[in-house]
Amino acid sequence: MNKTNDVNNINFTPDLWEKIQGKTKKGDEISRPSLTYWQDAWRRLKLNKASMGGLFTIILLIIIAVFGPLVSPYTYYDQDLNLASIPHRFEIYQVDENNHVYLHKALRMYTVTAKGEVLEKLTPVENNVMKKYQVYEVNGKKITVDYSSKPIQLKSEDGNIIQPLKKVWNKRFWFGTDELGRDLLIRVIYGARISLLIGFIAAIVNFTIGVLYGGTSGYLGGRADNIMMRIVDIINTIPLVLYVILIMVVIGSGLRSIIITLGTIYWVNMARIVRGQILSLKEQEFVLAAKTLGADTWRILVRHLIPNAMGPIIVTMTMMIPTAIFTESFLSFIGLGVSAPMASWGTLCNDALGGLRSYPYLLFFPSLAICITMLAFNFLGDGLRDALDPRLRK
């Protein structure tokens, strides 16, 4: 009874019910916000400098391919034989304080500025084939080109040898011109447009056909899977060039035949990869739960299985784009690609072979474009493979 009275006599104040500040252990603290699978993949991709460099290079190539021809004063088919085979870098000679000339390997002389802008082709006032010399007139001054011995010499009116002043970059044609006087830079840009277009179209077609075919095969299993994979094996055994020739016989050569060829056969690798992913996923608990809830085959495949296999699918599609670009370049190189005057990187390399020893720059620039594109896509693909791997998630 006394204890009850003691409790009743206690003065309860709000201070007695304040929350005790407990000590939080480091293990209980949240070091960073929780990230979804794709957010974490993007975070890890950004940490890979090579992959980000490849991504920015691809974006830059796309921008140049789309907008480059719009700002260029030339088109891929504009010809000027007077400006044929002018390199991207050449030696200039100073005639006087305000006049400079450039002597081409084919003994053509051009007036140029001191900074390297080609102005016009000069016509010789005298051409003595027997004694092997030509005479040009520049601003009232005669210049003799003596090619009777090597090296070729330029002489002024008083007989003094004019020495090369310096080497300058071609300010009018940054990549030089080809044998028909066409701007090589704009042709490389148009080649990028064609090659990237083929690469992305092939990737989209392969993604659509390969994912659906491989997903269906892996999910059905059994005899259906066996038959569908044997069809894939048969398609994969026929050489690519034979496909191209057969399609060209039916619909003719050009860009359309290459796109159809790549879309016809390049999906088989995607189908195999997707099939393997579906085989490993279809026995998981979430698939059994979907079946229990009455989901049909199409819904399970599209809504559950394929989204969970998107990591390897995206990596494979990224790797397929450079493969398609290289295949198009190879087919164009051997004469099975786009038709003239349309330019692709493969046709530019093929056209450069005839004058390779004299004009190596004609092969260098399209080959450099192919190499940069291949490296960019491969770096991006490697980074995506690491970023989308759930085993590397931290």
TrEMBL record:
Keywords: Cell membrane, Membrane, Transmembrane, Transmembrane helix, Transport. It comes from the Bacteria. One of its GO terms (biological process) is transmembrane transport. It is found in: Cell membrane. InterPro entries: BP-dependent_transpt_permease, MetI-like, MetI-like_sf, OppC_N. It is a multi-pass membrane protein. Residues 192-381 form the ABC transmembrane type-1 domain. Its main location: membrane. The chain crosses the membrane at residues 52-71, 194-215, 227-251, 313-338, 358-381. GO terms for cellular component: plasma membrane. Belongs to the binding-protein-dependent transport system permease family. This is Oligopeptide transport system permease protein. It comes from Paramaledivibacter caminithermalis (strain DSM 15212 / CIP 107654 / DViRD3) (Clostridium caminithermale).
